[in-house]
Fold:
Amino acid sequence: MSQHLHRRLASHEARRGNTSGVSDIMKIESHKPLIVDDASELAGRAAFAREFANLRRATDVLPESESFMRTVADNIPGLVGYWNTELRCQFANAACRNWFGRTAQEMQDIRLQDLLGEALYTQNETFVNGVLKGKDQSFECTLVKPGGEIGYMYTQFIAHKAAGKVKGFFVLATDLTKIKQAEERLRHAENAAMVQAGMVEQLRNHCRDLDTTLNTLLKREEAVAHDEKIALSQELERMIVPFLQLLKKDTQATRQLEVVKIIESNLQELISSYGRSAAYTTATRTLTPKEFQIASLVRQGLSSKEIALAMSLSPATISNHRKHIRKKLGFETRAGNLQSKLSSLRS
Structure:
C-alpha cells in the first residue's frame, strides 16, 4: 500500500498545477467499493485516504502562501531582489521596481549590467564577484533613479548556496537618502557655525587690539596733558603771577584787592583743572556771562556779600542770580548748597 501511495504522489507531482488529478483520485477512492478482507486492509485504506486529503489541502495552500510572501516582500520599504549566477533578475519587490522605474515584466531576467548601467556596475563589480564566490558583501553606494534623482543605499549581497555551490544571491538595499541629506544639512550647519565662531573670534581679537590701542592713546594723551599742564603752570608762574603779586602789594582799595585775589584764584584753578574742565564748561553753557562769573566765585567759596563787593553789585542782585543759576543747572529742587553742586561739576 505504501508503494502504491508513493506512485500516486509522484504522478501528482509530475502534473503540478493540475489539482483535478488529485480530485479524480480522491473521487475514485471514495467511490470504490470498500471490500474489507481483514483489519489491516481497512487500516491501510484509511491511511491512504488521509494522506491524499492532506496532499489536497497542501496543494490548495501553496498558491496562497506564495501570494502572501510576495505581498510581504512588496510592502518592505527596502529593495529586495534575487539574481542568479548569470546575473539575471529572478525576483524584485515593489520598492526595487519603483526605484528603477521598471515593471515586473521588465525586471524579470534583466541583466544586472543593463539595470545599473556599465559605469555603476563597474563600481560594484568587486562586490558581485565576491558574493558569487560565496562571500556575503555589504557596502554603501550611490544610485541614480531614472528621473536623475540621486539616492544613497546601504546594500547587502547574501549568497544563496545549495549542496556547497552558489546558486545566486539575494540583494537587500536600504535607502539612506534622508539620513545622508540630514547629515549634509548638519555638516552645512556645523560649517556655518564654525565660520561664525571664527568671525566672532576675529571680532573679539579686533576689539582687544582696539582696546589696547585706545588705552595706549589715552595714556599718551594723559602724559601730553600732564606735560602741558606743567609747562602752562611754569609759564604763568614766570609771566603773570609776579605781576599779580605786585598789584596786591601796591593796591590799597579793598575792592581792587578782592579783584586781584579773584584773578589769582581763577588762574590757579585753570592750571589745576587743565584738561578736566569739559564737563563744567558743557554744564554751564546756558549761563549768561555774568551768571558764569558769579557761579565761578560761588564755587570758590565766596559769599554773596563778597561777590557783590567784587562785582559792584547789590547782595540782592547776587541772590537773584544764584536762583537763576540753580534753575538753569537743575539744582532748584535738590538739597545741598550751590558751592558743592558746582564743585562736583568740576571734579
Notes: The chain has four domains: 2-73, 78-175, 178-239, 252-346. The beta strands are 79-84, 89-92, 137-144, 150-162, 165-175.
